[in-house]
């Protein structure tokens, strides 16, 4: 598999560290942004293959960011996987997410979903 780029938008520092380690071990290029960063600007700058984003960021709503991404011509094609401790799968998919993972999830489930999303 070629080295796909994953952009992480997550507010849990421990989770970011674990995800970076796991994804790098699996051969992905990983960029993590601050939980209060401008996610749309980061997507424009990094051009990730997949944005892995928490539904609840520090002072931002992942769903609002997803709506913004889907409304902009230059970034609406980015693949987005949402994650949350609450079962918000249907809501995330309605907003245009390509996939959803409920926390806590197994590393294998994340890798499988990333690979499916990238190859879709």
Please explain how this structure is put together.
- The mean pLDDT is 95.
- It contains 5 helices and 5 strands, in the order βαβαβαβαβα.
- Strands 2-1-3-4-5 form a 5-stranded parallel beta sheet, sandwiched between helices.
- The two termini are 14 Å apart.
- The protein has a single domain (5-119), classed as Response regulator (Rossmann fold).
- With 120 residues, it is of the alpha/beta class.
Gist of the model:
The protein is α/β, with parallel strands linked by helices and 120 residues long. The protein has helices spanning 13-25, 39-46, 62-71, 89-94, 107-119, and strands spanning 5-9, 29-33, 50-54, 79-84, 99-102.
Keywords:
single chain; 120 residues; alpha/beta; 42% helix; Rossmann fold; five-stranded parallel beta sheet; globular
Task: Describe the SSE topology.
Layout (H helix, E strand, L loop, with lengths): L4 E5 L3 H13 L3 E5 L5 H8 L3 E5 L7 H10 L7 E6 L4 H6 L4 E4 L4 H13 L1
